[in-house]
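#struct-pred

JT: dropping the chains for the assembly here, can someone run the whole complex?
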Amino acid sequence: GNSVTQMEGPVTLSEEAFLTINCTYTATGYPSLFWYVQYPGEGLQLLLKATKADDKGSNKGFEATYRKETTSFHLEKGSVQVSDSAVYFCALNTGFQKLVFGTGTRLLVSP
Amino acid sequence: NAGVTQTPKFQVLKTGQSMTLQCAQDMNHEYMSWYRQDPGMGLRLIHYSVGAGITDQGEVPNGYNVSRSTTEDFPLRLLSAAPSQTSVYFCASRRRDRAYEQYFGPGTRLTVT
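RK: done, full complex below.
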């Protein structure tokens, strides 16, 4: 079946540090891959997406590259801010309605 | 646009009580979904709808009912609440042609004692 595996958190960083949150997937077919972000007290928001192999999604300084050979979609940011503190979810979609989410990784950024 | 709205934000129920979680969207989206979020388990799909009058089960449908009489509204009903239904519930909607671009409501935190 389809599944997403994320690194366990929390990830604790100081402001301006480099961020990597690992995500690997198992899927039949050719999934599209996404990162969603959930700020405290809010619902999830789409952060970035990639729909085919070697695509790079980017938004708000975050990037992730769709790596078919390693079935990965790691999230990176060169310099995190306190305002990036949130829970980040990796997800995949192989068509139609259903998104499959990872368990989420909490990021805590201190000043 | 208000986007996706959910009410209530918080609710405490006793085992066996019933209630309805409300969800509405004003974006004229065809698809709507209900998810529950539990620690260490991410989001799991409960029920979804591809349009008014059409609903289907997701990954964890037991104990929940849904109906979709209008495009805008997609209520989730708990007929007899159980402690295992303590969770945060999210409603989401999207356009038919954008499977990835789901818009989520702010969530309802439900506690069943």
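JT: nice. The interface with chain B takes residues 4, 32, 34, 41-46, 49, 51, 89, 93, 95-99, 101-104 of chain A (CB under 8 Å). The radius of gyration of chain A is 13 Å.
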